[in-house]
Amino acid sequence: MNLKLLSSPDLIKSAETAVENERKATGVVLDHLREIEHRRLFAELGYASLFEYCVKSLRYCNASAQLRIDAMRLSREVPEVLEKLDSGEVSLSSIATLQQFFRAEKKSGKSYAPSEKLDLVIQVEGKSREETQRKLAEISPASVIPLEHVRVLTPTQIEIKFVADEEMMKLIAEMKALMNEPSPTYAQILTFALQLALGEKKLTPQRRAQNQVRRETSQSTSPHEGTGQQKERPESRKNRPYIPIETLRATVRRSENRCAFVSPVNGQRCKSTQALQVEHIHPFAKNGTDDPENLTLLCPAHQRFQAIQEYGAEKMERHFSVFEYDTVFELRRP
Ligand SMILES: [Zn+2]
Questions:
Q1: CA 184 to chain centre
Q2: Nearest Cα to 261, choosing from 205, 215, 304?
């Protein structure tokens, strides 16, 4: 279609039709994401999360992927969201903002019934993302995720506010452990990290070694495969020795400190380096041994995928509780 040939009213009409089609297409994308998540296809394809699949395979930018995943999650519980998105009554960003709000509320112990969620969806009809945030702030200011903000306080001091996610908090804790300060402020931790990154500071070999062992052990020990720090040993592990730390380390090294899952569909190896755990290839509960050749390193998505393959989805659903934050799972053994 050559737009230059259209009259102005026709051009406006054509733009409206294009946007309507775009909204409908978004609804179809959400439907697909829901089914892909339900079948855990992203894990089968070697991605550690639906988010990673959306970014790396579907080529969305991080923000676009997160918007769609959040909106899809809300549509699962409140299907009316899809009709409202189709008709343009509610925008994708408002739906995603609502979902982030419900997630934050849940974390602080307040849950909403689907009908209450629908009520709020109706209340943000026709609102922009900012208007939606303001509406939600009236209900619970702490649960409205603030945008990053930078404010000049004095000629030499600037206030920077942003929201740290779980992963960033873990990294901050690790960085803190490397510092000599007894209780550094966040500003000191960030300065230290930046100096390290820019080569203005170097860790002593001793600190580097300590950190390496700490990382290996914290990343490679399952709740039931720890180093003796757990208060209580699970039933299945009673009267059995823990897997030796050297074996755990060897498994981590063999997997090059990343998830060892390889997709049976396309041969893609998972790239995740987050929350890795040493797992049995042939399950411990089915008489799998602690021999090194029966051990592998997996990210949470692939621990879950493997467990479902082994025990079936129905049985495993009772043992998993999926946090709504993508990639974060609470994993308990059958
Ligand atoms: Zn993985």
A1: 27
A2: 304
What are the residues whose beta carbons fall under 8 Å from the beta carbon of 333, sequence distance 6 or more? 223, 224, 234, 236, 285, 319
157-161 vs 149-154, strand pairing mode: antiparallel
Task: At 7, list the tokens.
Answer: 């009259």
CA–centroid distance, 49 to ligand 1, in Å, is 8
Angle at 275 between CA 224 and CA 295, to 5 degrees: 50
Ligand 1 mean position, distance from CA 323 (Å)? 17
33: which residues sit within 8 A by CB, 6+ positions away? 50, 54, 68, 69, 72
- pLDDT score, position 176: 78
Give me ligand 1 centre to Cα 261, in Å. Answer: 5
The model carries a pTM of 0.59
**What tens digit of pLDDT does each residue of 190-215 get?**
998 998 888 887 776 656 655 665 56
What is residue 140's DSSP assignment?
Answer: -
Q: Are 94 and 132 in contact (CB under 8 A)?
A: yes
Q: Which residue has the tokens 């930018």?
A: 61
The pLDDT-based confidence of 329 (bands split at 50, 70, 90) is very low
**18: which 2 tokens?**
């294009």
The answer to whether 146 and 137 are in contact (CB under 8 A) is no
Other beta carbons less than 10 A from residue 291's beta carbon? 12
Judged by DSSP in three states, 289 sits in: coil
d(CA 224, CA 202): 35
Measured in angstroms, how far is the CA atom of residue 154 from the centroid of ligand 1? Answer: 46
The helix or strand, by DSSP H or E, that contains position 160, with its residue range, turns out to be strand 157-161
Distance, CA of 234 to CA of 279 (rounded, Å): 16
Q: DSSP letter string over 221-284? A: --TTS-SS--SS--GGGTTSPPPPHHHHHHHHHHTTTS---B-TTT-PBP---SS-EEEESS-G
